[in-house]
Write a structure and sequence with these properties.
Blueprint lengths: L4 H12 L4 H10 L10 H13 L3 E2 L14 E2 L1 H16 L7 H6 L7 H27 L6 H25 L2 H9 L1
Antiparallel strand pairs: 1-2
Helix pairs in contact: 1-3, 1-4, 6-7, 6-8
Length: about 180
């Protein structure tokens, strides 16, 4: 059974600690998980219900009250499926859609000035994201290994992009050369 990144993220957080939707929202927010996966607040309950229907989560003592206070637990099958999918996600180098590459592939549509300004804008936004992720990381004590690794990898990727952007912003002649080809 294959899981989407959002499904595996939610399932993994429940495996880490049984919790209800509101708890998940807080962990997602605190750890900056939305920086690297698409899990909106409204989709948390959808994902929990979907995982429960697939037998990967259950609610051992379901209260008669509101859905939001149902504490979800991973099933044995949920743990097995999560581990198999996590292994595949770590081991397999899968292509990741990058909007930046789509834009760069269409440079002929932009002037050198537009491209340079877009790079500067992206660099400023990236600097803000790096600062936000670093602040989220520093604000939490005793993070599990998985969360520490996510922060480390995310910051490394953003730092590599920042370095690339910084060199591109400083080399406007290169854009002019491409436009003359």
């Amino acid at each position: 059974m294959e899981l989407t990144p959002a499904e595996l993220t939610v399932l993994g957080l429940v495996i880490e600690r049984p919790q209800h939707g509101y708890d998940l929202e807080q962990v997602i927010e605190q750890r900056g998980i939305r920086q690297w996966t698409d899990i909106g607040f409204s989709s948390i309950y959808y994902l929990l219900t979907k995982l429960e229907q697939r037998g990967l989560l259950d609610v051992p003592e379901a209260p008669a009250a509101a859905k939001s206070r149902r504490v979800f637990h991973a099933t044995t099958e949920g743990r097995r499926v999560a581990a198999r999918n996590a292994l595949a996600f770590v081991a397999e180098a899968r292509p990741v859609p990058q909007s930046l590459l789509v834009g760069v592939a269409n440079l002929s549509l932009l002037s050198a000035q537009q491209y340079a300004q877009a790079l500067r804008t992206r660099l400023a936004q990236l600097e803000a994201r790096i600062a936000a992720v670093q602040a989220a990381q520093q604000a939490q004590a005793n993070l599990p290994l998985a969360a520490r690794e996510v922060f480390s990898y995310s910051l490394s990727l953003m730092d590599a992009e920042r370095q690339w952007l910084a060199t591109r912003v400083q080399v406007p002649r290169d854009q002019e050369d491409r436009r003359q080809d």
